[in-house]
């Protein structure tokens, strides 16, 4: 079901979103060679709980972490573990927060120490593909316009756009309708309206778009082993400019 939020509800979501952004920033500051993804997970959980929120991912479908920590060829849903980050890795941090009954959801991909030019390009292309999609986030535009904008930007830079997973509506629930694909046809799909709140989250691969899931049942990796990036914000559609709710 699609839910439309009023101004007061969007302001509550902005509080949940801010806490989400702060938790990701706390993790970002701790990313360095030698740290384990479990240590990063604890930083996020402590940060969120100490400010009265709850980590939405913990226990979601049985997921064990407060963040998804996805390293290198891992696309999304990496499980926090004793794996130590190494110089040259990239890591996607995805985090969700429930605060006062409302959800925030955001993700970004970070460098571990010095990384290759290819890896930095992927991070930059992934982030910019989100902002290309954001330009379409106005009433009257359609979901296909967002997907097309993300896809055409990423593919024009030689990257693959993951098809198997997509963005989503968000509100009192982490995942609400509609699904928000990162590919599509202009002028197709649901028409955006004021008060719709969606998480747009491109997952972009240096290689092909194809992915598979590891035997742990969670970790999604690129089928060809290429690096993958992830970038996400929670966005409120308004009469004016779209509002990013997951900002610091
Ligand atoms: Mg997310
Ligand atoms: Mg999401």
Descriptive account of the structure:
The protein is of the alpha+beta class and 248 residues long. The chain has a single domain, classed as Creatine Amidinohydrolase. It has 4 helices and 15 strands. It has helices at 7-30, 37-50, 117-134, 143-156; strands spanning 54-55, 67-71, 74-76, 90-99, 102-111, 160-161, 167-169, 176-180, 197-200, 203-205, 211-213, 220-222, 228-230, 233-236, 243-244. The strands form 4 sheets. It has a 5-stranded antiparallel sheet with strand order 8-7-9-14-15. Strands 1, 2, 4 and 5 form a 4-stranded antiparallel sheet that branches. Strands 3-12-11 form a 3-stranded antiparallel sheet, with no helix packed on it. A hairpin with a 6-residue loop joins strand 14 (233-236) and strand 15 (243-244). It is globular and about 45 Å long. The two termini are 29 Å apart.
SSE pattern, N- to C-terminal: HHEEEEEHHEEEEEEEEEE
Q: β content, as a range?
A: 25-35%
Output mean pLDDT: 98
Give the overall shape: globular
Largest sheet: 5 strands, antiparallel
CATH architecture: Alpha-Beta Complex
Strand order of the largest sheet: 8-7-9-14-15
**How much helix is in the residues?**
25-40%
- Small molecules bound in the structure, each named once: magnesium ion
Fourth-tier CATH superfamily name: Creatinase/methionine aminopeptidase superfamily
Distance between the termini: 29 Å
Please tally the helical runs, counting DSSP H or I stretches of 4 or more residues. 4
By helix and strand content, what is the structural category? Answer: alpha+beta
The CATH topology is given as: Creatine Amidinohydrolase
**DSSP E strands, number:** 15
Number of domain units: 1
């Amino acid at each position: 079901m699609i839910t439309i939020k009023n101004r007061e509800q969007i302001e509550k979501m902005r509080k949940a979103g801010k806490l989400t952004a702060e938790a990701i920033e706390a993790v970002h500051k701790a990313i360095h060679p030698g740290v384990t993804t479990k240590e990063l997970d604890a930083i996020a959980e402590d940060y969120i709980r100490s400010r009265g929120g709850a980590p939405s991912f913990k226990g979601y479908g049985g997921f064990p972490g407060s963040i998804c920590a996805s390293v290198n060829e891992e696309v999304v849903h990496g499980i926090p573990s004793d794996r130590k980050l190494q110089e040259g890795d990239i890591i996607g941090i995805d985090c969700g927060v429930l605060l006062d009954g409302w959800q925030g959801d955001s993700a970004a991909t970070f460098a571990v120490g010095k990384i290759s030019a290819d890896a930095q390009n992927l991070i930059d292309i992934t982030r910019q593909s989100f902002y290309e999609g954001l330009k379409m986030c106005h009433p009257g535009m359609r979901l296909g316009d967002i997907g097309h904008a993300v896809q055409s930007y990423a593919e024009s830079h030689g990257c693959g756009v993951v098809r198997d997973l997509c963005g989503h509506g968000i509100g009192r629930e982490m995942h609400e309708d509609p699904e928000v694909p990162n590919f599509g046809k202009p002028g197709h799909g649901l028409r955006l309206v004021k008060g719709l709140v969606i998480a747009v989250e491109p997952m972009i691969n240096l290689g092909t778009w194809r992915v598979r899931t590891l035997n742990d049942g969670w970790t999604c990796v690129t089928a060809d082993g290429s690096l993958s990036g992830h970038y996400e914000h929670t966005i409120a559609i308004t009469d004016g400019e779209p509002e990013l709710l997951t900002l610091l």
